[in-house]
Amino acid sequence: MARNRKLGRPSDHRMAMLRAMVTFLLENGKIETTVARAKEVAPLTEKMITLGKKNTLASRRQAMAFVTKEAVVANLFSEIAPKYAERNGGYTRIIKTGPRRGDCAEMAIIELV
Fold first, then answer.
1. 3-state DSSP helix/strand/coil percent for the chain, to nearest 5?
2. Which stretches of the chain drop beneath a pLDDT of 70?
């Protein structure tokens, strides 16, 4: 990701939000958010699943450094990553759902394929 969206937040707040969203997506399988946030979360989630497919101690530690819950990392390495073993990328899907009622922000559902 050479060009990151700033999402109207300072860098530390933005990274904390993206980490939380990646954790929540891996935990629940899908989340509803704005299109801009979904487009930022997708590559980070893909990277975590790729780390899960390697299944080494180093990759597990890298995932633990990014994902905020230990149980989600355990689930990532034991269940989620093996499901995508024969798939080369493209683990997430973004479906646009139309504008949000309050501020008319374009909304989307991001889910694991």
1. 55, 20, 25
2. 1-2
CB 31 within 8 A of CB 106: no
Q: In angstroms, how far is CA 93 from the centroid of its own chain?
A: 11
The total domain count for the chain is: 1
CATH of the domain at 108: 3.90.1030.10
pTM, whole model, 2 decimals?
0.93
Residue 51 domain-assigned?
yes
Res 4: pLDDT: 80
Range of the domain at 79: 11-112
- State the Cα–Cα distance between residues 60 and 80, nearest whole angstrom: 13
